[in-house]
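Minutes, project check-in

Agenda point 3 was the complex the collaborators sent over. CS summarized: two entities, 518 residues total, and the question is how they sit relative to each other. Sequences were read into the notes so everyone works from the same version.
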Amino acid sequence: MYEKPQDLWKACREGVWTRPTAGLAPGYAQANLVILPKEDAFDFLRLAQRNPKPIPLLEVLETGDWEPKLTAPGADLRTDLPAYRVYRNGELTEERQEIRDLWRDDLVSFLIGCSFTFETPLLAAGLPVRHIECGCNVPMYRTNRMCIPSGRFSGPMVVSMRPIPAHLVAKAVTVTARFPAVHGAPVHIGDPAALGIADVGRPDYGDPVPINPGEVPVFWACGVTPQAVALQSKPAFMITHAPGHMFVTSVLDEEIANS
Amino acid sequence: MYEKPQDLWKACREGVWTRPTAGLAPGYAQANLVILPKEDAFDFLRLAQRNPKPIPLLEVLETGDWEPKLTAPGADLRTDLPAYRVYRNGELTEERQEIRDLWRDDLVSFLIGCSFTFETPLLAAGLPVRHIECGCNVPMYRTNRMCIPSGRFSGPMVVSMRPIPAHLVAKAVTVTARFPAVHGAPVHIGDPAALGIADVGRPDYGDPVPINPGEVPVFWACGVTPQAVALQSKPAFMITHAPGHMFVTSVLDEEIANS
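CS then shared the predicted structure for the full assembly.
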């Protein structure tokens, strides 16, 4: 469909593409977007520094800037995503296709790594990715592990789960550990109850997937965490991407991998 | 001398220890200290996010806090270092043993990793550390590589240099790559001129060391960078540790290593 990020940016800008980004511009890192006013941006940046597994930063833009000069030069974060969500006082008030008229000089944009990036190397290493096999969304869960709070922001870590055959769990660790910028190695392997997950068949976000005999549930920190934590503290104003409608950077997956 | 960080903190607090910290509390991570008012702290934190090799953050404290709850619970950053420097409008105005009377509710403290931490594993792996052999300070150089700027902060990366026998250079890379929180792998191996260093025998900071036949100069990003960059932009108020008089955390070196 769209092979290059630049083509996708243009299609979003012109209102031609308004759907999810999974599978588009393969090989390029996709990112979660969080936009906050400067008054909340320092607390949020320190939150990311303290919680790099759930909130791995790909880029933090200059205050008031909408062009990601480091990870997507030429793009415009006000128009180049398929869909946005606007929150006021912690409530979702709008979903829209562009945010040009909402822009303010005091807004700071955060691009946060997305685990889509490590699913390609997982598949390449012969590991199953169940929600891709099932054609559904990855199951995600709120946990009993709290993020280290920062200023006004506090809340639980959200995790995603992929069932992995026991003899391949170590491989799943080493493959994903190479990608700390997109959540990296798992945060928990095995017993869901230890994370406070009562029923692994009933995720808080996304869809349930079957765990086959001989498979272990493996949990990775999830990019839903920063939005969940930010919303819990009800910031006066926040803009994010709409779920699944990510920003696609012009950075190759391999460029953000550890050597 | 002082085996435990807690004993050193107390000795500093009581004015009993006022000298450099090299070799004290062996095995515990030592840190550079930068304290800035909140108005400059966001630009500085974003600078660190963009330049993790020269500015690897161990902890960013809550605004107004002086206890590093994550890396040194029980310590007081106002008293528990042997010596401090106070800068006003980019000029060094005082060196003193404690900063209690200068404390303000809007100050944000940054603890930044120090390459002292990876010299122990270098030695353990059989690699020479020339400035330790010579009993002098490590040679450091301003380079022609600019940090990615952030808001008011911009300036060159400073590097430290250790001569390594050619057949051990790869080992020096792998040993230090395990410690991204204290500058990690080298940023440059070989030709000093490519970094804009005219004469490797005349460092900008620290002391010169001999490079023996068959040795390659290996350059690591250096913790002097954040102070040099911050000073270049002349912040109204900044406090740092005095050179060599580091803050010793209660985190073990191995705790901040990659597995």
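Noted in discussion: The interface with chain B takes residues 38, 41-42, 45-46, 48-50, 57, 60, 62-63, 70, 148, 150-151, 177, 259 of chain A (CB under 8 Å).
Follow-up: revisit at the next meeting once the mutant set is ready.
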